Amino acid sequence: MALILILIIAISIGHYLIPTTHHHLHEIFRRLYFFPILLAALQYGFRSGFLIAFIISLIYLPHVVFQWSGSFLSNLVRFNEILLYLLIGGLSGLLSDRTRKERDRYRDVAEELDQAYQKLKQQSDQMAELEHQLRGADRMAVLGELTASLAHEVRNPLGSIKGAADILKKRCKSDKTCLEFPQILADEVDRLNQVVDNYLTIARHPAASGETTNVIAALESIFQLVGPQIRKQNIQIQTDWPDSPVSIPMSEVEARQVFLNLALNALAALTPGGMIHIQILKSDQTVIIHFSNNGPGIPENQLETIFTPFYTTKKEGTGLGLAIVKRLVESRTGTIEVESQMDKGITFTLTFYPKKIT
Ligand SMILES: Nc1ncnc2c1ncn2[C@@H]1O[C@H](COP(=O)(O)OP(=O)(O)OP(=O)(O)O)[C@@H](O)[C@H]1O
Ligand SMILES: [Mg+2]
Fold first, then answer.
1. Rounded to the nearest whole angstrom, what is the distance from the C-alpha of residue 311 to the centroid of ligand 2?
2. Mean pLDDT score, 217-243
3. pLDDT-based confidence at 358, cuts 50/70/90?
4. For 182-217, how does the pLDDT look when each residue is reduced to its tens digit (9 = 90+)?
5. Contact 345, 277 (CB under 8 A)
6. Is 322 in the pocket of ligand 1 (CB under 6 A)?
């Protein structure tokens, strides 16, 4: 607006100060008034365009009447010019208003389209996620049924074998050579029972027990259990946890199962001299456990796969370890995430929300 006012003042000064004998200069100045008129109309629309044209007409009129002081007819061109100011100011203002309205309308339509697109995208993402969950749930349901019947079928003969082994053991009395085979039988039966239990842990949704366990004590007992292997491989264990107990919403058996699996995986991945690092962060609402080891890590595209039942890269592995860990943690309203950098290591982050437990 300031530029428009400056232009009007400058042009008007030209008109009033330059004598009318400089006929050609006045011709130019008269037309220069179109600049502020057009500027106002294009920038601010009809009202401003017309108003500026009107003001200019008012400023210009005394100049025509008094300074040119000719007859009405000889000043007709100049009066005509005043009419043109008003016409151009008004018309170009109208035009600019219409263009602005159209532009606003297009912008609104574009915004609506963008919102609709975002909504659609969100819905399709949700559907994909739901489908993924349903497929997972489907698989788990089938696995659950299969496992329950398999466990039933397998456990009964296992019980008989164990019984037979015990009878054989009794018959051997203290004959060590005779005891060797029934003992192997009994041990293998125990191992098979453990495998069946593992399958059941994944397939069943563990019932909420409301129990809590001190995670530090659970971890200490696990490291005691795998102590011989840790020493054999010369693995360093670094811990960074509070001095006071930290409760997580799991039974002791479940907590030990979770951390034994993580510890065994770490030991399997580490070469002699490697390190396991455990950090526990406790706040009012969460307990966060970072379980890391500086082994070879895993490629990024396998990060999700390692939790899938039966996924293993080990010759003797069942691929159920991490599936059990995930199932147990999630059934206790916790979450488990994994991050890894090749050749730098891997970190499992378990988050529990003790207050959410019902
Ligand atoms: N700390 C780790 N470092 C590198 N790879 C790992 C680690 N933990 C798990 N993995 C990878 O994830 C796979 C799946 O682990 P998971 O514990 O489910 O089964 P597993 O250890 O192979 O078999 P199982 O637990 O029955 O002995 C492993 O075979 C291994 O390739
Ligand atoms: Mg494992």
1. 10
2. 94
3. very low
4. 999 999 898 888 878 877 777 666 667 788 999 999
5. no
6. yes
Over the chain, what is the mean pLDDT? 88
Residue 353's contacts (CB-CB under 8 Å, 6 or more residues apart) are 285, 286, 333, 334
Residue nearest to atom 11 of ligand 1 (CA): 306
309 lines ligand 1 (CB under 6 A): no
Q: Give residue 255 CA to ligand 2 midpoint distance, Å.
A: 15
121 CB under 6 A from ligand 1?
no
Give the CATH superfamily of 213-356.
Histidine kinase-like ATPase, C-terminal domain (3.30.565.10)
Q: Which amino acid is at 1?
A: M
pLDDT in tens, 140-162: 667 777 777 778 788 888 888 99
CA distances, 252 to each of 210, 221, 223 (Å): 12, 11, 15
Which ligand 1 atom sits closest to the C-alpha of 316? Answer: 27
For the chain, what are the domain ranges? 2-103, 132-203, 213-356
Nearest atom, ligand 1, residue 348 CA: 1
Cβ pair 81, 30 in contact under 8 A: yes
